[in-house]
Amino acid sequence: MTGPTGPVGPGADRLLGAEADGEEQAIEAALRPKDLGEFVGQERVREQLDLVLRAARQRGATADHVLLSGAPGLGKTTLSMIIAAEMGAPIRITSGPAIQHAGDLAAILSSLTEGEVLFLDEIHRMSRPAEEMLYMAMEDFRVDVIVGKGPGATAIPLELPPFTLVGATTRAGLLPPPLRDRFGFTGHMEFYGAPELERVIHRSARLLDVEIDAEGAIEIAGRSRGTPRIANRLLRRVRDYAQVKADGVITQEIASRALAVYDVDGRGLDRLDRAVLTALLKLFGGGPVGLSTLAVAVGEERETVEEVAEPFLVREGLLARTPRGRVGTPAAWAHLGLTPPQGTGSGGVQSGLFDG
Ligand SMILES: Nc1ncnc2c1ncn2[C@@H]1O[C@H](COP(=O)(O)OP(=O)(O)O)[C@@H](O)[C@H]1O
Ligand SMILES: [Mg+2]
């Protein structure tokens, strides 16, 4: 398998990063649910996909092309493998960035067997010429292979066996509409709720042969940012702690102590997240403050603050991006146990509305 290597952007090696590096991908493979029944949560996507696959199987046909969109670590790669397994089909795995030229794609497409699943990860990062080749392949199961260069180049049409394209993207909005339209089914993956993450954790603990009680799983789930990949990662770190510092059993107390060691707080914020919030509240009175100023204050690159820390802080309602700059919300003051200044500032705006 030519697995896609995780992106190496800012913060890619973070304990709470949602991306997986090469080593982690091997560990994850062991924890992947193998069929739809084992796949936790995502009820809507699961139910819809189940219908699509069942119907195709009944017709003895190849399943429609499937697009999976959602944040990293929510189970897109896992689902693509489940689709192949449910269809009893082999799967070929590649990614947008791995396809530099249309010729790379042509080579892959022309070697597919009937009914095979082609998983194209990070499909929004494919090159334009490859994308155009893909349109035709998806719709007509045909590609034009260009032989030669310049005025002497000729297009040789090549028939393809019917196949199922499963595209995955973290940025559905970046896909050109003609590409999006060629998928028969789009599944939007949501962040997971605590009960689902607890089920993921219990399931993984069983597979890893780790003992964990209900409260231990609740503790880890609450800090996993709605993301199974992070839940599994925290579970492995807590397991280490339980093994070295205790009797190996994960309880609430052990989980909480372990995650404190790893700098993951009760809400799933790490040191960088808290540094950003603390600077915003303590140095700038809750804002608004510009991104660059905030980045300098925490000694990080702009990109790191914007792409690594902020998305989760925004999602949690702790930080707001406004036209005038970054603002800490009342929830941020509460989370850090600080008192917002009286009068102006983010905390005072709302209450002012009710003052007269
Ligand atoms: N619904 C789920 N149930 C159980 N485990 C899951 C689920 N979704 C993801 N995981 C686990 O989380 C990890 C990351 O999933 P993956 O499919 O690689 O995410 P993505 O491709 O969206 O980044 C895998 O180890 C997988 O086992
Ligand atoms: Mg993936």
From TrEMBL:
The record ties this protein, via SUPFAM superfamilies, to: P-loop containing nucleoside triphosphate hydrolases, Winged helix' DNA-binding domain
> What are the start and end residues of every segment in region (Small ATPAse domain (RuvB-S))?
193-263
Q: Where is this region: Disordered?
A: 337-356
In this protein, which residues make up the domain named AAA+ ATPase? 62-196
Query: Alphabetically, which GO biological process terms does the record hold?
Result: DNA recombination; DNA repair
Specify the domain of life of the species encoding this protein: Bacteria
Which residues bind Mg(2+) per the record?
Answer: T77
Instruction: Give the Gly residues compositional bias ranges.
Output: 344-356
Name the segments for region: Large ATPase domain (RuvB-L).
Answer: 12-192
Q: What class of enzyme is it?
A: hydrolase
Entry EC no(s) = 3.6.4.-
Residue positions binding DNA = R302, R321, R326
- Record's keyword terms, sorted: ATP-binding, Cytoplasm, DNA damage, DNA recombination, DNA repair, DNA-binding, Helicase, Hydrolase, Nucleotide-binding
* GO function term, MF aspect, one: hydrolase activity
- What's a single GO CC term here? Holliday junction resolvase complex
Principal location listed in the UniProt entry: cytoplasm
Q: Which residues bind ATP?
A: L31, R32, G73, K76, T77, T78, E139, D140, F141, R182, Y192, R229
Q: How does it assemble?
A: Homohexamer. Forms an RuvA(8)-RuvB(12)-Holliday junction (HJ) complex. HJ DNA is sandwiched between 2 RuvA tetramers; dsDNA enters through RuvA and exits via RuvB. An RuvB hexamer assembles on each DNA strand where it exits the tetramer. Each RuvB hexamer is contacted by two RuvA subunits (via domain III) on 2 adjacent RuvB subunits; this complex drives branch migration. In the full resolvosome a probable DNA-RuvA(4)-RuvB(12)-RuvC(2) complex forms which resolves the HJ.
**Family label:** Belongs to the RuvB family.
NCBIfam families found in the cross-reference section = PRK00080.1 (NF000868), ruvB (TIGR00635)
Q: What does this protein do?
A: The RuvA-RuvB-RuvC complex processes Holliday junction (HJ) DNA during genetic recombination and DNA repair, while the RuvA-RuvB complex plays an important role in the rescue of blocked DNA replication forks via replication fork reversal (RFR). RuvA specifically binds to HJ cruciform DNA, conferring on it an open structure. The RuvB hexamer acts as an ATP-dependent pump, pulling dsDNA into and through the RuvAB complex. RuvB forms 2 homohexamers on either side of HJ DNA bound by 1 or 2 RuvA tetramers; 4 subunits per hexamer contact DNA at a time.
Q: What is known of its domains?
A: Has 3 domains, the large (RuvB-L) and small ATPase (RuvB-S) domains and the C-terminal head (RuvB-H) domain. The head domain binds DNA, while the ATPase domains jointly bind ATP, ADP or are empty depending on the state of the subunit in the translocation cycle. During a single DNA translocation step the structure of each domain remains the same, but their relative positions change.
Q: What name goes with this protein?
A: Holliday junction branch migration complex subunit RuvB
State the species of origin. Answer: Streptomyces buecherae
Q: Which gene encodes it?
A: ruvB
